[in-house]
């Protein structure tokens, strides 16, 4: 229901950022249904998985080579801070491309279920950090020294590799009282590509509950 509500905001002629993950997949499906009824849009996907889904459902795709700006991005999130609408994203492993798309968008709408709303980011949800594969051990050491309890994400016994060829480290951070300071601190570490902190990027949160949809705006 929340995904369908978010897709109602897509207008004819828009360039739409297509998020990644199970929640974003519902939005792609809802967008495809509107396209089948005549809506004319193009999408920029945030992952190869989303691109494949969009192609299969008949959603026309484009790229930043043709469009430098995106009118509207619709994506999911792993945590949403109620008061600020700051986000933690990246448990699906597409955080870098998701952040590039979000930053290039005039608006970002985030679709979540009510369990993703929190008073403060952190706690039981790890913070994904994308790092380069070369020398990843040294990056892990630096994150551990700061006290972020980093764990290299694995698939079986091999490192999980993003669409960009990078690795993901999941950091356990109990509380994030100042996410902007944390983001800057992580960005200053050599070998860190990007963090899963999305600060000031979401304009609207569409929250799906058991029987209704709530909309929270900045």
Give the topology.
Elements: H1 2-7, E1 15-18, H2 22-36, E2 42-45, H3 48-57, E3 70-75, E4 79-81, E5 87-88, H4 95-103, E6 105-113, E7 117-118, E8 127-131, H5 136-146, E9 150-152, E10 154-155, E11 158-159, E12 167-171, H6 179-187, E13 192-195, E14 197-198, E15 204-208, E16 213-217
Parallel strand pairs: 1-2, 1-3, 3-6, 4-7, 6-15
Antiparallel strand pairs: 4-5, 5-14, 8-12, 8-13, 9-12, 10-11, 15-16
Helix pairs in contact: 2-3
Q: Which outline best applies?
A: globular
The helix/strand series, from N terminus to C terminus, equals HEHEHEEEHEEEHEEEEHEEEE
Helix content: 25-40%
Rg over C-alpha atoms, rounded to the nearest angstrom? 17 Å
In whole angstroms, the N-to-C terminal distance is 21 Å
Major sheet = 6 strands, mixed
Q: What is the residue-mean pLDDT, rounded to a whole number?
A: 96
Determine the number of helices (DSSP H or I, runs of at least 4 residues): 6
Low-confidence stretches: none
Explain what the structure shows.
With 218 residues, the chain is an alpha/beta fold. It contains six helices and 16 strands. It has helices at 2-7, 22-36, 48-57, 95-103, 136-146, 179-187, and strands at residues 15-18, 42-45, 70-75, 79-81, 87-88, 105-113, 117-118, 127-131, 150-152, 154-155, 158-159, 167-171, 192-195, 197-198, 204-208, 213-217. The protein has a six-stranded mixed β-sheet with strand order 2-1-3-6-15-16. Strands 7-4-5-14 form a four-stranded mixed β-sheet, covered by helices on one side. Strand 1, helix 2 (22-36) and strand 2 (42-45) form a beta-alpha-beta unit. The mean pLDDT is 96.
């Amino acid at each position: 229901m929340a995904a369908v509500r978010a897709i109602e905001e897509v207008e004819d002629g828009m360039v739409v950022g297509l998020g990644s993950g199970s929640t974003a997949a519902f939005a792609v499906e809802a967008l495809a249904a509107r396209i089948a009824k005549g809506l004319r849009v193009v999408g920029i996907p945030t992952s190869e998985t989303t691109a494949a889904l969009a192609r299969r459902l008949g959603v026309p795709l484009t790229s930043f080579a043709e469009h430098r700006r995106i009118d509207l991005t619709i994506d999911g999130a792993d945590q949403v801070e109620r008061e600020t609408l700051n986000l933690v994203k990246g448990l699906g492993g597409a955080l870098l491309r998701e952040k590039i798309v979000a930053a290039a968008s005039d608006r970002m709408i985030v679709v979540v279920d009510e369990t993703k709303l929190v008073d403060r980011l952190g706690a039981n949800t790890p913070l994904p950090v994308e790092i380069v594969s070369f020398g990843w051990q040294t990056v892990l050491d630096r994150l551990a020294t700061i006290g972020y309890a980093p764990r290299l994400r694995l698939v079986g016994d091999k490192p999980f590799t993003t669409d960009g060829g990078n690795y993901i480290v999941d950091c356990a951070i109990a509380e994030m009282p100042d996410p902007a300071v944390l983001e800057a601190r992580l960005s200053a570490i050599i070998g860190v590509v990007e963090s899963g902190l999305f600060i000031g990027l979401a304009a609207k949160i569409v929250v799906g509950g058991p029987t209704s949809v709530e909309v929270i705006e900045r």
